[in-house]
Amino acid sequence: MLVAVIAVLLATPGASKAAAHAQVEHASVSSKPTVALVELKGIVSDADRLAVDEQLRAMLPAFDVDVQKQTKTRQAQKDLHSLGLCTDAGSVECLVQVGALSKARVVLAGVLSPVDTTTSAAPTSGAATLDLVGVDVNTMRERGRVKVVVPGAGDDDGRALALESALTGILRPDAWQGTLRIDVAQRGASIYVDGAPRGFAPISE
Prior knowledge:
By secondary structure, the chain is an alpha/beta fold. It is built from six helices and ten strands; from the N terminus they run H-H-E-E-H-E-H-H-E-E-E-H-E-E-E-E.
């Protein structure tokens, strides 16, 4: 349905060959893929959510991509909603539609949720879990999904490392390294990962 809508728009009478040529010429100016970051959602404070959103957006150029203006991404979402499309904002199908309409190659979306300090060792107060997903618009498939713990505002270095890790996991998966922490009741217990011995508890790698 989205393809049909775009086709109708392109077939609108009065669209000149010169305008079409200008669009093609403009698109070829940069060979970098365009990445759209949908505004983060979550049940954390608006201040924390927006701070993480802005930091992610500021870090994207380091991954050799063009960052789509937030207003363009929002307009694509608004247009899709007006057509009765993209009802499930976090689905792969919806993110692909957003990317197709806004002409982005990759679309990122994430959800922030507070870390339960009663059951896990949060690095700092105010820490949140970021579940970040990326979709490839050309293949119409999920590119990757990464979950990281983002330290609170007091730990700037830790927050930057966590967000860089999340972006790397989706945009440069071959270079991504995660951290595995294993907590067991008995100290000194043997640890095996995928059948291979890794040491004794407690251990982090």
